[in-house]
Design brief:
Layout lengths: L1 E4 L8 E7 L6 E10 L2 H8 L8 E2 L4 E8 L11 E4 L9 H4 L21 E3 L6 E2 L9 E5 L3 E3 L6 H21 L8 E4 L3 H12 L5 E5 L4 H8 L3 E4 L5 H9 L3 E6 L4 H10 E9 L13 H7 L2 E4 L7 H13 L9 E5 L4 H9 L5 E5 L2
Parallel strand pairs: 4-8, 11-12, 11-14, 12-13, 14-15, 15-16, 17-18
Antiparallel strand pairs: 1-2, 2-7, 3-5, 3-9, 3-18, 5-6, 6-10
This protein binds nicotinamide-adenine-dinucleotide and zinc ion (2 copies).
One zinc ion binds next to loops.
């Protein structure tokens, strides 16, 4: 099968012929139908999320089951599925306490010494990213990385739910509890931020303020529910939020992953409000925060990982939201591309020229 392989950090992906193994116990072989392109893939390619090459990235997939391995009871050939990087073991403290997205076993892969799921034409192992690797025509995943969805859900739009939509919507719906009428700021209107914005609209937030450095994103943000938009390249975005909200917003979602915008997010948060960090700041970096801002103003800062998901419960619900007309996904796709054009897609992401780009497979 054809796949885009990360052969080195800070270099273009290489389109290669890759061998994919047969499904082993508990595994499912999929024909990849579509894969969204998330900024976290770019973080890995640029080294700010360290993952050693060679590896096949891609973690926002939808596909169709081709074959199942021994002991697979949750899926059968022909099922339409979405893949999620937070695989769950089902028995650890996090899983049983209702926070499976924190499961410590989520990246375990095949047992040590087992044949690799993916290998190069010369037989060398190619690592699988997060049990998924959707920048490839086929995927071999543990059944607990997958959820079955309705057959009437278009698979290109379903793929967005695999990461960006679940991350953004879930940050607003699961990680925090936004009261109807509360003021919300979304910093960064990429796939993740636009989903958080829609989450704020769905729960009935009051003012929903979108902040981005690319003003063309504001048409989309307004369509998705933003009441106000702030161009981060003009003037002081923190002061603008304080003006619009009368002293800061109840909830501020940072959906970029930059030190200055994390600091702005805390500064935009009202007394007693909550800053939600969704963007991934490079792992080696630390962000200076004024601690007395937290104590004397009782602000809360929380992280949000993969929308605090229980994806087997959440994703079919998000599919219903879309099919019922409450979640906008068509407008979120700025282009559908072929796998061969993946490096140009990452160039557009670097320049902020895309909302969500989706690879569609034949
Ligand atoms: N927490 C999680 O579990 C999780 C999951 C998925 C993605 N992420 C992270 O979320 C972040 C966003 O991902 P995405 O795929 O939406 O990215 P994206 O590249 O599609 O969007 C980023 C947006 O930020 C804007 N932006 C960039 N610099 C800015 C600045 N200085 N001021 C204002 N706006 C600016 C861009 O114009 C763009 O609209 C990434 O860091 C990604 O790794 C986190
Ligand atoms: Zn992602
Ligand atoms: Zn677990």
């Amino acid at each position: 099968m054809k796949a885009a392989v990360m052969r080195a950090t800070d270099a273009p992906l290489v389109i290669e012929d890759v061998h994919i193994d047969d499904p082993g116990p508990g595994e499912v072989l999929l024909k990849t139908a579509a894969s969204g392109i998330c900024h976290s893939d770019l973080h890995v390619m640029e080294g700010s999320l360290p993952v050693p090459p060679p590896c096949i990235l891609g973690h926002e997939p939808a596909g169709v089951v081709e074959a199942v391995g021994e002991g697979v009871t949750d899926f059968r050939p022909g099922d339409h599925v979405i893949g999620c990087l937070t695989s769950f073991c089902g028995v650890c403290n996090y899983c049983t306490a209702g926070r499976p997205y924190l499961c410590l076993a989520q990246f375990e892969g095949r047992p040590p010494g087992a044949k690799p799921r993916l290998s190069a034409s010369n037989g060398d192992t190619i690592d699988q990213f997060a049990n998924l690797s959707s920048f490839a025509e086929k995927m071999l995943c543990p059944q607990r990385s997958l959820v079955k969805i309705r057959d009437d859900m278009p698979l290109d739009r379903a793929s967005l739910i695999g990461c960006g939509v679940t991350t953004g919507l879930g940050a607003a719906l699961n990680t925090v509890h936004i009261r109807a009428g509360a003021s919300v700021v979304i910093i960064g209107c990429g796939g993740v931020g636009l989903a958080a914005l829609q989450g704020a609209r769905i729960v009935g937030a009051g003012k929903i303020i979108a902040v981005d450095a690319q003003p063309w994103k504001f048409d989309l943000a307004k369509k998705f529910g933003a009441t106000d938009c702030i161009d981060a390249t003009v003037g002081d975005a923190v002061a603008a939020v304080h003006d619009l909200t009368g002293g800061g917003a109840d909830f501020v979602f940072e959906c970029i992953g930059l030190i200055p915008t994390v600091q702005q997010a805390v500064a935009m948060t009202a007394r007693g409000g909550t800053t939600v960090l969704v963007g991934v700041v490079p792992m080696a970096d630390t962000v200076p925060i004024n601690a007395s801002d937290l104590t004397l103003q009782e602000k809360t800062i929380t992280g949000s990982y993969m929308g605090s998901n229980r994806f087997r419960f959440d994703m079919p619900k998000y599919v219903d939201f879309y099919l019922d007309g409450r979640l906008f996904l068509d407008e979120m796709i700025s282009s559908r591309i072929a796998l061969n054009d993946i490096n140009e897609a990452f160039d557009r992401m670097r320049k902020g020229e895309a909302a969500r780009q989706v690879i569609v497979y034949d």
